[in-house]
Amino acid sequence: MTDLEYLKQEITRLKRERDAVILAHNYQLPEVQDVADFIGDSLALSQHAARTDAKAIVFCGVHFMAETASIICPDKRVLIPDPEAGCSLASTITVEQLRAWKQEHPDAVTVCYINTSADVKAECDYCCTSSNAVKVVKSIPEDKPILFLPDMFLGAYVAEVTKRKNIYIWPGECHVHAGIRPSLVLEMLKTYRDAEFLIHPECGCTTSMVYYFGSGNGNGSGNGNGCALTSNGNGNGNGNGNYACNVRFLSTEGMMRYAKQTSAKRLIVATEVGILYRMQRENPDKEFIPVSSDAVCKYMKMITLDKVYRSLKEMVYEVKVPEDTARRARKAIERMLSIQ
Asked: Which residues contact 186 (CB under 8 A, 6 or more apart)?
């Protein structure tokens, strides 16, 4: 038996003994995904955490995700295998900065991306993920100004899709997605004309891509059925034939669903490369090409199989949010979970 096989066997045994469930984000290492009971994006993981009957949750993701699970599951023990697994996007705004911003816009509704600390969530009216950000914003009366934080690319995407003019966007970014620039995307589209293209709305190319294809610069035939643009795949434009045009902006779980249903055999994926492992495993007859092999989140990769084993064996490291913070943050998260 190899060391890897032994670790997986021991993790399975410890899960039973501890009455624990392992949740893993789509960006986790392949071997961590292999031992997970459920794999998904931030929204799906939050929903699964809320439903599980297990006494303990081992959260294989970054710290804000474990915090969210702890907030919505106060009766469960939530563990993260490495407490230093942070998030470059979440760190772009502090609770003090948010309070000052809210004072500048006292009548605004505050919508925070799930990639934020519990302290920040506690100051917000709504939480959202890339899966439901558009739906959350659309649920807010049009006459109410919105503060959207912290991701500027997701915020710009939401503003474009909803056509909302009174949305203010915090200038934060994910270091991985920000590196996926328009020039790189356009070059890949030009090279792989037969492929479908899946873009995460956190990407640095998002705003320009929405504008570019929304202006009809794809490979459409002139009948208005050129590009797929929005999170639900609606398209428009008549195209100039320079690029492949089947472009969709989707959350990671949206990408997973679309990869299963499409008849396309080649897909280019613009997000963190960890998702390719699950994509390929669930769709062995299709080819998945990363827009950039350098799109790697060092924080997601801090969770290793050794650390998962230690977490279960020693029941470390527990993530606990102070009750007052958790109570206020829970309202924003529950509003997110209620919007389907």
From this structure: 212, 243
Beta partners for residue 78, in sequence order:
57
Question: Cβ atoms within 10 A of the Cβ of 166, count?
Answer: 13
Distances (CA, A) of 149 to 79, 82, 227, 324: 26, 26, 28, 22
Tell me if 42 sits within 8 A of 25, measured CB to CB: yes
pLDDT, one tens digit per residue, over 51-98 is 999 999 999 999 999 999 999 999 999 999 999 999 999 999 999 999
pLDDT tens column, 302-331: 999 999 999 999 999 999 999 999 999 999
Residues 147 and 105: beta-carbon distance below 8 Å: yes
Tell the burial category of 241 from Cβ atoms under 10 Å away from its Cβ (0-12, 13-18, 19+).
exposed
DSSP conformation class of 87: -
Whole-angstrom distance, CA of residue 252 vs CA of residue 43: 10
| Residue 145, preceding peptide bond in cis (omega within 30° of 0) | no
For residue 196, what are the β-bridge partners?
Answer: 267
Cα(112)–Cα(333) distance, integer angstroms:
10
**CA distances in angstroms from 97 to 92, 103, 110, 170, 332, listed in the order given:** 10, 10, 13, 10, 18
DSSP E strand stretches across the chain: 20-25, 38-40, 56-60, 77-79, 109-113, 126-128, 146-149, 167-169, 196-199, 227-228, 235-236, 247-249, 266-270, 287-290
3-state secondary structure labels for all residues of 147-180: EEECEHHHHHHHHHHHCCCCEEECCECCHHHHCC
The two structure tokens encoding residue 142 = 């049009």
Structure tokens at 278: 């699950």
pTM equals 0.90
